[in-house]
Amino acid sequence: MNDLVSPETSLGTPMAPPLGTASAIDSHAASATGAHAASAMPPHAASAIDTSAVMNVTPRPPIVFAAGEGSWLTDTAGRRYLDFIQGWAVNCLGHGHPALVQALAQQAQTLLTPSPAFYNDQMVRLCTLIAQQSGMERVFLCNSGAEANEGAIKLARKWGALHRDGAYEIITMDHGFHGRTLATMSASGKPAWEALFEPKVTGFPKVPLNDLAAVEAAIGPRTVAVMLEPIQGEAGVFPATVPYLRALRDLTERHGVLLILDEVQTGIGRTGRFFGFEHAGIRPDIMTLGKGLGGGVPVAALVATEAAAVFAHGDQGSTFGGNALAAAAGCAVMETIAAPGFLEQVSQMGAYLADRLAALSAKHGCGGLRGQGLLLALDLERPIGPAVVELALARGLLLNAPRPDSLRFMPALTVGSAEVDAMIAILDEVLGEVTAG
Ligand SMILES: Cc1ncc(COP(=O)(O)O)c(C=O)c1O
User: Fold this and answer.
1) Of all atoms in ligand 1, which is nearest to the CA of residue 184?
2) Residue 30: pLDDT band by 50, 70, 90 thresholds?
3) What pLDDT was estimated at residue 33?
4) Whose CA is nearest to atom 16 of ligand 1?
5) Which residues contact 69 (CB under 8 A, 6 or more apart)?
6) Helix, strand or coil, per DSSP, at residue 71
7) Pocket-forming residues, ligand 1, beta carbon under 6 Å
8) CA atoms of 378 and 380, how far apart (whole Å)
9) What percentage of the chain carries pLDDT values higher than 70?
10) Under CATH, to which class is 98-338 assigned?
11) Does this model's pTM top 0.85?
């Protein structure tokens, strides 16, 4: 148990050295965080770790992580942090889970990358596990959610060329998030990206989430697919409703277009089921996976039904896609999550987290909860998210505010009630402080 948050310790008085003083990091990124997470921290001492070679694409606080175990991270100064971000819903088994560590260690000594032009035993095993679990027949392994989604877009366009008279438009959702390649940015409905990197890839008309009539109105002869996340994660955890998903499945079937579900964030147990679509009792034609699939190792998947899997030789490929090391990690994750009781535990812990957050919300005059399983957001009802994240970090808790009025919780699927309690205790203090100020 971390002494930062053990019951005996004053939560506001870290026993480890205060952030920044001992870790002594010199970074352009640190100065960039001035308006963000780093501003609550004491000024850091002279440079011990020069991070200036790291391209400055995001405001990083002056912390360098060096180790992790379960729900805890440790920085180079030895300070521990309770991790309710987990690599943005990536480390589904937490940091350093024995099943994953063992699979990687064993595979590292056996075979890494024999070339995607050949089968390898771990690639075949992982594709088979995903196919069996999803009921979808064909799996292409790759390295990131964006790459999987880029593949989904290409696959749908190929299908349109073969089966729908060259149709290529994919209807996507306002505020959706599908990645950072040019096509996946174009498919995303993130307002802040509208003016970026113009001209974008065309062919992605947008509609509001949960508005079936808008989708129906947008479907035309050029439409080949509808693409969405079962829960919009980056937008702030906004679920597609079950009736909407069911109706969308019917609508796409009636119009002879594909349904693509981006399960990069919702897949692999995050919502308490293996895949988000299971809550609606539907199955898409194409699904993408990433994040949790490798439990922290970069592995992603483009999954398709037999009918939708229309790539011909040469249409798709990836040098590292299906490499044996990453695939072994994926197998360890899939098998751990498929073990009896694992998903029930995710649902139970999700309900526990939701209960505790609801009580905290009532105490501090915040709003409702969104999401499912262990992908939850708390509506703060005022734009205090960044301040809460900043103060939580200073107390050794990693949280995320996907929008100024919301906090997102995406802990390890193995998180325990003691860790939820510890997180709630810190958040209680922080909310008290922020709302008092
Ligand atoms: C729903 C969804 N799709 C795609 C992506 C992109 O994944 P990656 O960052 O691995 O490319 C993300 C990342 O947050 C995501 O949440």
Assistant:
1) 4
2) very low
3) 27
4) 265
5) 94, 95, 96
6) coil
7) 88, 144-146, 149, 177-179, 229, 233-234, 262, 264-265, 290
8) 6
9) 89
10) alpha beta
11) yes
